[in-house]
Amino acid sequence: MLISRKMSFVCDFCGTNGDHSPYYCATCHLLVHKNCISLPRHIMITRHLHTISLSYSLRQSQVEDWMCKICYEEVYIRYGNYRCPGSRCHFIAHVCCATDEATWDGTIMPEGYDERSEEVVHEPWNLITDVVEQIRIGELMVASEIKHSYHDHNLRLTFSGKTKDDDSQCDWCTRPISTPFYSCEQCNFFLHKDCAELPKKMPHSFHKHLLTLSNSHDEDGYSVCSACSQLYQGFSYRCYEIVCSFRIDIQCMYFSDTLKHPSHEHSLFLVHNNEGMWCSACFRVPFPWDVLYRCMKRCDFSLDLSCAKLPLTCWYKYDRHFLTLTYSDDSEFPQYYCDLCEKIRLPNCWFYYCADCDNSLHLHCALGVLPYMKLGNKFKSYRHKHPVIFVKNIWNCPPCKVCGEICNGQAVECKESECNFTVHWSCF
Q: Which UniProt keywords are present, listed alphabetically (predicted)?
């Protein structure tokens, strides 16, 4: 029954405050928001594999953890909540968290929905079309030669050794190639084993719609990841829903809605940056539509996706040792500089360090300004009349056409005849 007057109350369905015209049940003495009257009974969100159902007056003995699995705040079970009906699944979420437009696409699941059909929807669809040859490793049979939907030639598996080029990258995730990986004997194509086994379609916590694997890019020849806002040229998962341009690179796709990072003592959980938090690693403030990780214990710590996916160690060809990702620097201020570009480092920003050689490098000096762009790939830009390519660590090259300095990081070059065009990426 609608109470047509202004009054303050707490909605018994969603647990948040109201200030006028609630609906009232005289039998149960419930006060409910007008919008909460039409809350769906069953919904599906990408934060959980199963259908979750609206529950009211959940008994204490039915759940072990009353922490919302989306915002990681306490769920007061005297109010409504969404939970997984599975007896062994303890997923629970606030009503407002589960039905937030960033989490739920608005699809209502029918009453009596068969959970077994759900498994078909979420079952990985492998893009390996044929296994040409297999080998036995212990008790497992491993595909040593395959045909893949996204490449014309057969791919062979390598468990050890290196490629001919130290700068070789996986053509899908653009990370430096590492074993085990598949390669093509007819062309310069490399693919991590994990990337080769990715499904064509899959849900992800970062987005409310089902995502599809794609190798398409914008007209310029590259894309911008909607999760970390970085440029990339590898494959991605894209949303093809109407008026939705979400796309996420393969590296971000490997993340889940929670993260345990060695830089922080507590676990982190995924949020959209609606509160304008800054990254504790690089001190950048992500855009409000970006996602980032926040401390579950509400410490003043957060991590954007570009810093969360930094490798813990990296190989730099001008150092004999691996560089280690370092989170703080206790040295004196005069030593806060990068040993490659010889420019100042901010003392609280992360950096890469070699303890044996006492070398400290900016993140972008160690990995490159654009670590997820494929070296040698052409792309278009209005800043130059010809297509240009990315190159890395050019020591014997013409000076930058803008600043006049020799490039010691990533740069842009034109390979057209009689076009001596080289520009630092930061100047481009």
A: Metal-binding, Repeat, Zinc, Zinc-finger
